[in-house]
Fold:
Amino acid sequence: MGEQQHVKFPQEVIDEYAALGVDLPGLFSAGHLGTRMGVQIVEASAERVVGTMPVEGNTQPYGLLHGGASAVLAETLGSVGSMLHAGSSKIAVGVDLNCTHHRGARAGLVTGVATPLHRGRSTATYEIVISDEAGRRVCSARLTCLLRDVNPSDGEHLRAMG
Structure:
């Protein structure tokens, strides 16, 4: 679960962050809550972020995928999309997350797909649809992020993570 991921970012985005000393793909590897939960981001752009998460290890006492695990996947994907929309001069901070759980999942992987509903200068809102391996919707989520200017200490933190 903690191994390096191979996220597909647009090359111009990788180059933009590399110029700041930040390894963008490295931001989505070891050391994060998502890594402990097995979240793997497989595609990332401001227009679409796709990630998977195993059900095993992320269940509640009845053996079903925990709603909080779905929330972690949703917030991760929506935050990545918001960050990529905002660019390297801003940081995306989640301010509102709403999740509706439609059905349970007991095994396998769930896949989340985040697409933008609104991409502005100061906020970004993404819809995240989480589905099971049969393509059935498990959860519908919406995340709004505040896009604020990067402070010098933010850049130091990002470089330390990369």
Notes: The chain has four helices and six strands.
